[in-house]
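Q: How do we represent a protein-ligand complex in a form that can be generated cell by cell?
A: Start from the inputs.
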Amino acid sequence: MKKVIGIDLGGTSIYGGLIDQEGNILKRSMRPTGSSGGREQVLHNIKEVIDELLEEGVVGIGLGSPGFIHTERGQVLEVGGNISGWAGTNIRGELSKEFRDIPIFIENDANVAAICESWLGAGKNLDSFIMITLGTGVGGAIFTRESGIWHGKNYQGAELGHIILYPHGRECGCGQKGCAEQYLAGRAIEKNYLELSGQRLKGEMIFSNYQLDEKAKEAIDRFIGDLGIYLISIKNIFDPEAIIIGGGVINSREVWWDRVIDYYNKNCNSPKGTEILPAQFLNNAGMIGAAKIALDNI
Ligand SMILES: [Zn+2]
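Then emit the C-alpha cells for the protein with zinc ion bound:
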C-alpha cells in the first residue's frame, strides 16, 4: 500500500502524519510552528516534522498552509494567513531543496480540511458542500464532487473568512475591516469578551463559563448571532447540499451548536435543503486531507 506524508501547518502548531491509501495514520509528529522566529524557522520546523516521518516507500508529501496558495507553484501569495512573514514563501521550492526526490503538493488549509471531509468524513456522500473552519482564523472551501475544490482565477477563491460581516468593523490581518474572521474565530470570542467585560479570558474558559458569567454568555450569544447570519449568507450564495463546520471552535459546540442551528432555521428565508453539519475530522483533517492531495496527484 502507498504511503505519503500529510502536513497540517497551523498558526500555532505543525502536525504531520505518515498516512496510507485508506487514510490511516501510521505515525505522527508535531512541532510548534515557531512563527515568531520568521519564515526560516517555520520552514526548519516543517522539515523536522518531515524528517521524523520519512521512511522507505514514502511516495509523496502534501501540505496544507494558511493563506492564498498558488497550488501549481506550491507558493503562498500575498496573504499568508496567521503566520507572520509567510506571504510570498515558495513552500514547495524550499522543501524540494531538502527532499529532492519526493513530489510535494501544497494546498490552502481549509481546502485540505474539505478534501478530508469529502473523502472520509461528513461530506463523504455529498455532491456539493461548503466547508468553513473556525479556528485561529476562519477558512472556507467550496467543493463539488464533479470539479473538486474551487480555487478561483487567482487562487484566492473561497476566502470565506474575509467576507465583510460588519462594514467598517474590526480590523483584519488581511487589510480589510469587518471580516467574518474577526467575529467567528476563536480569538473573536475572546475579543467579544474583552469588549464586554474589560477582561482577557481564554476562549475555552469563556465557553465553560456560559452559564456562570453574564458577560461570557453575552460574548457567546453575540458569536451565535454572527455565525447564524454568516451561515444564512453562505446558504444564499451557494445553495449547497450542506455547510460543514470544522476547526477548533467546534470542540465547544455543546454550548453553541443547537442555538446557531435554531437561529439559522428561524432567520433564513429557506433553511431547508441545506444541512448544517459538524466536521467529523477535527485535529486530523489537515494532515489527512493533505495526504489525499499527494495521493491523488502522484
Ligand atoms: Zn480579512
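DSSP finds nine helices and twelve strands in the chain. The chain has a mean pLDDT of 95.
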